[in-house]
Amino acid sequence: MWIWLLILTLSLHLAPEHASLPLVINTWPFKNATAAAWSALQSGGSVLDAVEKGCARCEVEQCDGTVGYGGSPDEAGETTLDALIMNGDTMEVGAVANLRRIKNAIGVARAVMELTEHTMLVGESASLFAERMGFTAEDLTTNKSINIFSQWLKGNCQPNYRKNVYPDPSKYCGPYKPVPVQHQNKRATSANEHAHDTIGMIAIDQNGHVAAGTSTNGLTHKIPGRVGDSPIIGAGAYADSTAGGAAATGDGDVMMRFLPRYLDCSVCGKISAPTLKMHYLCSFVCKQWEPPLKEVAGVICFSVFL
Predict the structure, then answer these.
(1) 255 in a domain, yes or no?
(2) Residue 227, annotated ligand binder?
(3) Distance CA 5, CA 234 (A)
(4) pTM of the shown model
(5) Which listed site, 68, 157, 181, 202, has its alpha carbon 20 to 30 Å from 264?
(6) Catalytic positions
(7) pLDDT tens, 46-71?
């Protein structure tokens, strides 16, 4: 397997006055999101405020078409959202997955963390919770997402994420049924490697408090109900104010199997050299994942040595 694992690692050797702080970093060149998070910190907001504001900006701007409403329609043509936010001081987490009708997914994730004793809500129940907490119900479909879906249907539903079914998913649309076990094969087609971007963000304030978060509309043409790594703690993002923070973007179906963001903080947080971090993470995933596939992932992380 080839794994393209791009890691941006910031090792902060903090003096008592925390001269290197505050800090905001995020995946992809989503500069307006970074600016929104930075503005929140500069105006006296918490690191949670910063992460929420930054990710929310991307949700509004539909960053890269893979965050927020109107992007990545699933097999039924619907856009759904996933998000996570984590408090590195208390280790509290709020997350939502397969969220429908609500544009502010990161806001709902924070509401789950602060207004319930739960960690994650999913699907229609998450949407109903959001509505009862005052979030506005809106259509997440746009002309662009309708066009993406229409073109996909005209192209015989290519690409898709089906395997071991008939009719042949590399040639035809469904509905699909499972093939007998003796005739099963590996997935014949793979989707666009750029169809699964995410905003992952980490914020650390002047006093060393850390928060991390993610927001995404998932894989384009995903099977309805699919959830990737973004809202999964330790997979999409992780924050620990005593160690650091990490967030990622990439093929969540592969990444979530190894909890790489938790590894970034718990194990790699003790490794000072960025190249050693990258070597450790790549080696770990490659040892566990055998199929000869090429996956693409991006990681942002920083470690704090107190």
Answers:
(1) yes
(2) yes
(3) 17
(4) 0.86
(5) 68
(6) 198
(7) 999 999 999 999 999 999 999 999 99
